[in-house]
From TrEMBL:
Residues 144-201 form the Cobalamin biosynthesis central region domain. Keywords: Hydrolase. One of its GO terms (molecular function) is cobalt-precorrin-5A acetaldehyde-lyase activity. Residues 213-332 form the CobE/GbiG C-terminal domain. Its EC number is 3.7.1.12. SUPFAM superfamilies: CbiG N-terminal domain-like, CobE/GbiG C-terminal domain-like. This is Cobalt-precorrin 5A hydrolase. Pfam families: CbiG_C, CbiG_mid, CbiG_N. InterPro entries: CbiG_hydrolase (IPR052553), CbiG_mid (IPR021745), CbiG_N (IPR021744), CobE/GbiG_C (IPR002750), CobE/GbiG_C_sf (IPR036518), GbiG_N_sf (IPR038029).
Length: 340
C-alpha cells in the first residue's frame, strides 16, 4: 500500500517517525518547511522525507491520487477542508486517516471500507499505542458491510447502490444470505447461478466480482488496439466472464513496446506485465500446441499460456488454454477464489 503522512508541527513529526518505525517501513513523510527548519531536517539523511514548500491543498493536487492511503497528523476539521473537492467516489478514492497532534486518537475519515481506512486505522492505532476511532455503522455494530466483504476477498463491486441497500439490511438486523451452498458448489469456486429460498416479496441482491482472472496475450507485430479489445471481449463473453474480473494481462518481453497492446490495456484499465525469456522457458511445458515459427523468432514455443500462468499465483486452472484470434493468441487462467 502506497502511504503518505503529512505533519505541520514538531509533535506531529515525532508521530510520523513512530508510524514509520512501527507500521509502514516505506512511509513517505511530508513535513512543512517551517517545522523542517525548526528541526534542521534539511541536514538529516532520512529516506522518503519530503519538505513542503507550498500550501498543503496545492500539494494534494499532485499527491492525492498518487497514494492509496493518506495520514494527516493534525486536526480532523482542517483535513476535511483541505481534501474538499478531491474525493470522487468511494470505489476509487484513496483512504484518509487523521491522527491528533499527541497521537491519542487515530480516526478513519474517508474510504473506510473499499479504501481500507478502517482496517489501517486499527493497525496504526495498535502500532503507536493510540485509540482507533471508526464510525461506519456496520463496523460499530460488529457486522460486515458488502463493500468490506468484497474488499476482503479482493473482489470488485458490480453496483455500489445495490451494495448500500444490502448493507442497510445488515445494519438494521435483517438476515442476508451469502450464497456458497456446499451441495452445489465448493467454497472456493465461482457459481453461474444461485437458488434463493425466501418468503420475502422484494429481495435486495448485490453482486461482487472477484478479480482472479489472468490473461496471456501473444500477437503479431503492429496489431491494432481495436482488434485486441474486440477479440478479448469476444472470448470473455464466450466464457461468461466479466471483463472487470481480469486482474492482470501478461505477454512476452518482445511485446513490451507493442503500441496496440499497451494502448488496449490502458483503455480497458487492465495492468499488463511482460515476462523475460528465461521466466517463460521455466514453464514452457505448459505450451501444448508448440509453434516452431515462434521458437525460431524469439526462442520460446509459445507466449500466451506461460505468461497467463506466470502472472497468476499458479493455484487455479486454465479456462482457455490457447485460442487463436486472427493474429493473436489468448489464454485465460483462473486463480483459486479466496473467501473469508
Amino acid at each position: 500500500m502506497r502511504t503518505a503522512v503529512y505533519c505541520v508541527s514538531k509533535n506531529g513529526y515525532k508521530t510520523c517517525l513512530k508510524i514509520k518505525e512501527n507500521v509502514y517501513k516505506n512511509l513517505h513523510i511530508y513535513v512543512s518547511g517551517r517545522v523542517a527548519n525548526l528541526l534542521n531536517l534539511e541536514n538529516e539523511n532520512i529516506e522518503n522525507l519530503f519538505i513542503i514548500n507550498e500550501r498543503v491543498p496545492i500539494l494534494l493536487e499532485k499527491t492525492f491520487n498518487k497514494y492509496d492511503l493518506h495520514i494527516f497528523v493534525t486536526a480532523t476539521g482542517a483535513v476535511v477542508r483541505i481534501i474538499d473537492g478531491k474525493f470522487k467516489s468511494k470505489d476509487t478514492d484513496p483512504a484518509v486517516i487523521t491522527v491528533d497532534d499527541h497521537a491519542n486518537f487515530v480516526i478513519s475519515l474517508l474510504s473506510g471500507h473499499l479504501g481500507g481506512a478502517n482496517e489501517e486505522c486499527e493497525k496504526i492505532a495498535q502500532g503507536i499505542g493510540a485509540i482507533p476511532v471508526i464510525t461506519t455503522a456496520s463496523d460499530v455494530g460488529g457486522k460486515i458491510a458488502v463493500d468490506t466483504f468484497s474488499q476482503k476477498i479482493k473482489a470488485k463491486l458490480e453496483d455500489l447502490e445495490g451494495a448500500k441497500r444490502v448493507t442497510s439490511l445488515i445494519v438494521n438486523g435483517e438476515k442476508v444470505s451469502l450464497h456458497l451452498p456446499k451441495n452445489i458448489v465448493s467454497h472456493n469456486e465461482n457459481s453461474a447461478g444461485a437458488i434463493i429460498v425466501s418468503n420475502r416479496k422484494n429481495i435486495e441482491i448485490s453482486k461482487v466480482i472477484p478479480q482472479n482472472i489472468f490473461i496471456g496475450i501473444g500477437c503479431r507485430r503492429g496489431i491494432s488496439k481495436e482488434h485486441i479489445i474486440e477479440k478479448l471481449k469476444y472470448v470473455m463473453d464466450k466464457q461468461n466472464l466479466e471483463l472487470s474480473a481480469i486482474k492482470m494481462a501478461a505477454s512476452a518481453w518482445v511485446k513490451s513496446d507493442e503500441i496496440g497492446l499497451i494502448e488496449a490495456m490502458e483503455e480497458l484499465e487492465i495492468p499488463i506485465k511482460f515476462f523475460d525469456k528465461e521466466e517463460i522457458l521455466k514453464v514452457e511445458d505448459l505450451v501444448e500446441e508448440r509453434s516452431e515459427f515462434v521458437k525460431n523468432q524469439i526462442g520460446v514455443y509459445g507466449v500466451s499460456e506461460p505468461c497467463a500462468f506466470l502472472a497468476s499465483s499458479g493455484k487455479g486452472k486454465f479456462l482457455v488454454k490457447k485460442v487463436k484470434l486472427d493474429g493473436m493468441t489468448l489464454s485465460i487462467f483462473e486463480d483459486e477464489l479466496k473467501v473469508l
